[in-house]
């Protein structure tokens, strides 16, 4: 338990969560320093025909973009959870987990 506490303290001291929250997706995908390695990664996996890696990458990018959407911003208002938005958000993440489990463990 102490290991996780030191890891959380390290992440908070480096302000990594704040930096991730402040990323502008539109600027990121037009930045050549990000785009060139990302395109090379995707191209390499297409060449290897690694469908599992491509699907998991698409899930991660999609969930990251979804986590910055207006649906997620309106999930908590004035410290109260909005139940009318909880079910769609939970459905998206549950579907993502189901897809990830299928591609990582069940698909051969």
Number of separate helices = 7
Inertia-based shape:
globular
SS strand fraction:
under 5%
The H-and-E topology, N to C, reads as HHHHHHEEH
Overall pLDDT metric = 85
- Which structural class do you get from the secondary structure elements? mainly alpha
CA-CA gap between termini? 36 Å
Could you name the ranges where pLDDT drops below 50 across 5 or more consecutive residues?
A: none
| Major β-sheet strand ordering | 1-2
Describe the sheet with the most strands: 2 strands, antiparallel
Give the fraction of residues assigned to helices.
over 70%
Output the radius of gyration: 17 Å
Quick one: how many beta strands?
A: 2
Protein described:
The chain is mainly alpha-helical and 108 residues long. The protein contains seven helices and two strands, in the order ααααααββα. It has helices spanning 2-14, 16-21, 25-28, 32-48, 51-67, 70-73, 83-106; strands at residues 76-77, 80-81. The chain has a two-stranded antiparallel sheet. A hairpin with a 2-residue loop joins strand 1 and strand 2 (80-81). Helix 5 (51-67) packs antiparallel against helix 7 (83-106).
Task: For the structure shown, list the relevant keywords.
108 residues, mainly alpha, two-stranded antiparallel sheet, 2 strands
């Amino acid at each position: 338990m102490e290991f996780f506490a030191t890891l959380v303290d390290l992440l908070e001291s480096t302000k990594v969560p704040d930096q991730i929250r402040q990323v502008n997706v539109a600027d990121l995908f037009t930045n050549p320093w990000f785009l060139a390695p990302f395109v090379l990664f995707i191209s390499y996996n297409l060449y290897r025909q690694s469908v599992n890696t491509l699907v998991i990458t698409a899930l991660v990018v999609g969930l990251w973009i979804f986590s910055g959407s207006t649906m997620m911003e309106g999930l908590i208002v004035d410290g109260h959870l909005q139940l009318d938005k909880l079910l769609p958000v939970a459905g998206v993440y549950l579907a993502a987990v189901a897809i990830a489990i299928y591609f990582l463990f069940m698909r051969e």
